[in-house]
Amino acid sequence: MPYQNKPSVKGNYRIKVFGDAGLFVESTPGNNAGLKLAALVPSNNKQKWTITPAATGNNLYTITSVEDNSGLTYFKNYWGYGYPLPAPGQSKMWSIEEQSATFSKIKAVELGYVFDSCSGSNAVRLYSPSGSNCQNQYFVFELLTNGTEGVHPDFPNIPLRSTLPLPLAPTSDSQAVPTGTLPNIANVQGDVFLRFPKASHRTPRRGLVDLSTHQVFQEFIFFRIQNTDHFRTQLGSYKPTTSEDVSKLLTNISASKATDSDDADINELLTQIAFSKLGLVALGETKATGDPRFDKGSMVLDHAALGDGQLSNWDVLFSNQDVHGVIMVCAKTSEKCQIGRERYIRDFGASMIVKSTVSGNARPPPYKGKEHFGFQDGLSQPALRGLSYVNKGQLQVDPGVIIMGYKGDPVFDNRDAPQRPPWTKDGSMMVFRKLEQDVPAFDKYLQKWGPQWRSFTPVPDEVKPPLTDKEGAEFFGARMMGRWKSGTPISLAPFRDDSQIAQDHRRRNNFDFSVPGVSGLSDRYCPFTAHIRKTAPRNLDPYIDRKFLESALIIRAGIPYGPELTDAPEDPQRGLLFVCYQSSIDQGFFLQTTGFACNDYFPATGLTPRNHGQDPILGSGKSAINGTANIKSDGPVVLRVTNDTLETYEVMGIAKKVDTSLETFTPEFFVTSRGGEYFFVPSVSTLKILAGGGSERPAL
Fold it and tell me: What residues does 326 pair with on adjacent strands?
């Protein structure tokens, strides 16, 4: 790979000492953080640096470690020198000054000292710039291939975000898709596939930044249309945040991470509007959308199928079937979010009745990005071909799986079937669910079963050293989720967490549940019932086609609600405001919930059904009816049973011997649905049609 005298574009680089010594600048994180010189190790991320030109130019750059996203700063010594070192937070500004056409010096702008390779030592220090013949201070740069290294060239400072738009310049990871077959992102509302940024992308530094400000807040304004004509008028003035707007905002966020600026993180109000079936009818759009689950009328009709138990568990807001739509408002501060909420309530005025507002907020540091059970959330999102950047191992879908009117949309793909109305194009189906989490009970459950960790792995002898009770509880929770609380997949770290994997965007989704040396499907390390294996299954060949699994993927864009856990006897409720997007509710959310998560026999792992159990996070607890019968041995059985009304049913299956000497493990569930609704998220152009009185144009 040829070397450059200075970085040519933002990207990943190795920094090499000029000359023939073959020494590269390497990060040494930890208590004795610093930089050292070492021989090349191509796979060593400590020798790789994300170098980003400052917006002001003038040869100024930020330098960030690829290994752990630490910014490059320095320590000044009073004796006339200092040390560059990686540290959590933002990089200092560095000036990379050309000394010739072949090398440069790297200067700490505020200090005036430059990198010095200290002849006779492997350390990198900062010294005053020497004359023109001091090769200890000369460095060259090797640009690494963006597609190989996996860092988005346009968003180098937010590499862990799971949904990013394609680079402006194509890379080897780009999907070649004809532009005419792709949605116009300026016409797609902003939360649908890029998602509103709902967690601070900055790493706050104590003493410099108020930690309390590093949250994002969201309001859901659920309304009923009261005066249709007045509502249409106000809708005509409403300007939603588009996916194009979110793309620009992410650019600002990435740029702000390179500086000490805080305001550029999220300094604007984000908003989106969606309508229930009743809401569309109220606005004059009575035609079916082509989504039977939505067109049926309301989620309340599915509460039993979704495993929600008694309807009395639901909030009245959703059980009354009286919601016409929802306006979402998202902002960096609670105050700004409330101002936005009041603004839209005021703008729409008497045209609508606000049925309720539901508030969510990203958890504060040190729980950034985590849901209330403590697990990192939102790590695995599908990339839309032709629209989204693809990280290594990330699942991919055709755009129509999420956005209506394109390849992957089951209605669009079936040209022999009646097509959707044209106003559905560039829209998406949104599912909202209020999921209450019993955090204290969940924690006690892990603590109860943690000491029995040997019972929950088929290979306890591989666990060395043996787990403590505390580690056993963490292990038990990781097997329930399929990831450790850091976000590291249990497939890649089977017995103890390795948080560095979670911080590596090239590794944290690069798995398929296979086990080296084991043929076929295996639950050796990750249970078949694990949440991520139930809801986003991978590699079920040959029993389930990969294209079918791909078609069931969804974009998840939820946010936690409720305060942090306290010891107060009247502790308030908390949970997740679940939001997801898909072009077909039946194919997406409903299939994931009823066909995958709550289906004891999913995933299919053989030619005969096997009862794995339900998703321990989303499962309903409503499982098969238990009973006893006399049989002679293992193998196929056919039983006839009667129900309460004396109707006869035939049950066929495989009998399996049970070891009754073991303590019976009964799964418990800690998530309670408080209801929700199905919504249609119109395109920007369709909002104008609705504001103008609806459309009766012919189908596509």
Answer: 222, 274
Considering the domain architecture, whether residues 229 and 133 belong to the same structural domain is answered as: no
pLDDT digits (tens, 9 = 90+) for 533-550: 999 998 898 889 888 999
Q: How many independent structural domains does the chain possess?
A: 2
Report H helices in 257-406. Answer: 277-282, 292-295, 316-319, 334-348
Domain-located, residue 155: no
123 & 197 share domain: no
441: enclosing H helix or E strand = helix 439-449
Query: In the structure encoding, which two tokens stand for residue 402, read together?
Result: 């999420």
Q: Which residues contact 675 (CB under 8 A, 6 or more apart)?
A: 299, 300, 303, 308, 313, 314, 315, 317, 318, 319, 433, 434
**Reduced to 3 states, what is the DSSP secondary structure of residue 157?**
coil
Instruction: Cite the beta strand spans of 43-112 per DSSP E.
Output: 49-53, 60-65, 71-77, 81-87, 94-98, 104-108
Predicted local distance difference test score (pLDDT) of residue 597: 94
Same domain? For 339 and 224 the reply is yes
Q: Do 220 and 256 fall within a single domain?
A: yes
Residues 553 and 683 both lie in one domain: yes
C-alpha closest to that of 353 among 378, 322, 328? 322
Q: What is the DSSP letter of 664?
A: P
| CA dist., res. 13 & res. 51, Å (int) | 7
Domain membership flag for residue 651: no
Same structural domain for residues 137 and 229?
no
Nearest to 388 by CA among 255, 221, 555: 555
Residues 546 and 539: their CA atoms lie apart, in Å, by 7
Residue for token digits 């394109």? 406
Going by C-alpha positions, the residue among 687, 584, 693 that lies closest to residue 275 is 687
CB atoms within 10 A of CB 520: 11
Q: How far apart are CA 49 and CA 51, in angstroms?
A: 6
User: Which H or E element spans position 533?
Assistant: helix 531-535
C-beta of residue 278 within 8 angstroms of C-beta of residue 111: no
| pLDDT in the model for residue 132 | 61
Question: 3-state class of 158 per DSSP?
Answer: coil
Q: What is the value of pTM for the model shown?
A: 0.76
**Residue 99: exposure state from Cβ atoms within 10 A (0-12, 13-18, ≥19):** middle
Q: Which CATH number belongs to the domain containing residue 31 in this structure?
A: 2.80.10.50
The answer as to whether 649 is a domain residue is no
User: Could you tell me the two tokens for 211?
Assistant: 């930690």
Domain assignment of residue 273, yes or no: yes
Indicate if 121 and 189 belong to the same structural domain: no
pLDDT tens per residue, range 82-130: 889 998 888 999 999 988 888 999 999 988 899 998 766 788 999 888 8
DSSP notation for 227-244? -HHHHHHHHHH--PPBHH
First-to-final CA distance of the chain:
51
> Is residue 217 located within the same domain as residue 328?
yes
**Structural domain harbouring 274:** 162-171+185-631+672-692
